[in-house]
Amino acid sequence: MSKYEPLREHLARLEDVVWAAKLNEVEDIIGSTLPRSAREHRTWWANSGGSLVHQNAWLDAGWRVERTDLMRDVIVFRRLRIGGTVAAAASRAERPARAPQKAAEKRLAKEMLALRQPATVTLRSEWTTLGDVQRTPCSSNSIPQEGGVLRFASMNGDEVTTAVVATLSVHKAYRSLRMEMKGLDNDTDSQVGHDLCEKIGLDPKSPIECDVVKSGNAWLLTDGRGRKANMDDQSECYLVAQLLYLQEIQSGRKATLLLR
User: Fold this and answer.
1) Is the distance from CB of 237 to CB of 166 less than 8 angstroms?
2) Are 187 and 251 in contact (CB under 8 A)?
3) Contact 211, 151 (CB under 8 A)
4) What value, to the nearest 5°, has the Cα angle with vertex 62 and ends 59 and 68?
5) What angle is formed at CA 137 by the lines to CA 245 and CA 229, rounded to 5 degrees?
6) How many CB atoms lie within 10 A of CB 10?
7) Which end of the chain is more exposed for a tag (fewer CB within 10 A), N or C?
8) CA pair distance 9, 260, nearest whole angstrom
9) CA–CA distance, 236 with 229 (Å, rounded to integer)
10) Can you list the residues of the chain whose pLDDT is less than 70?
11) How far apart are CA 251 and CA 249, in angstroms?
């Protein structure tokens, strides 16, 4: 039996019309490494057949190679007809069924190859200016009620220091700082004001500029595919805040992160 028989059987079982396969995925299916020419020469993936047993594997299964992208180690197969050869079907019928445990182990190992691929998470965000905390009242329409990320900036000598705050209620967090700066009793359930002034050291008598990333102004992109971040979801709001905090650090500013 050809070493590429498992590839023919795999293609014959597929219900899809197109299969974009990574080379290491093909190697997992056949149970051995591909020859060097398979990774370097597109002609290895031609559809000539004849005495070329590896090409007969997909041709006999009713498939052909439509496109090769050896720079990315990807081969795109397209179905030509439904079902493979009778011989392939017969060989499958003659084989005893694999134990469910072994089948599950092989399936999991295959899935883990995809899960372990490097991933890139990117944040696109837009800051909305709220202005000087001393001058912008809590009643301002620019202060959202829902979740978001606040950035408070003040001067520390000649340097700007910032505090990035993730909160599920921007209005409560902002009001908490305003009350703390005025020395009034905090009528919110937020401790942001106390933490900013007591733990971080914001001077309530100094100018403090405030910006906010609110709902609709943050997008999370993973490997090029993106969506708007849900700032009312605590885990996503915290993730956005952590990425913005890293941006502050990488910009050379002294910054603090609060997750509330």
Assistant:
1) yes
2) no
3) yes
4) 60
5) 35
6) 20
7) N
8) 55
9) 6
10) 1, 81-98, 223-224
11) 5
Alpha helices by DSSP H, listed for 116-198, are 170-182, 192-194
Q: Is 59 exposed, middle or buried (0-12, 13-18, 19+ CB in 10 A)?
A: buried
Q: Are 166 and 258 in contact (CB under 8 A)?
A: yes
Q: What does 195-232 look like in DSSP terms, one character per residue?
A: IIIIII---TTS--EEEEEETTSEEEEETTEEEE--TT
pLDDT for position 66: 93
Q: Is 209 left (phi over 0), alpha (psi -120 to 50) or beta?
A: beta
pLDDT for residue 4: 93
With b for 16 or more beta-carbon neighbours within 10 A and e for fewer, the 231-247 pattern comes to beeeebbbbbbbbbbee
Take residue 130 and report the two structure tokens written for it.
């709220």
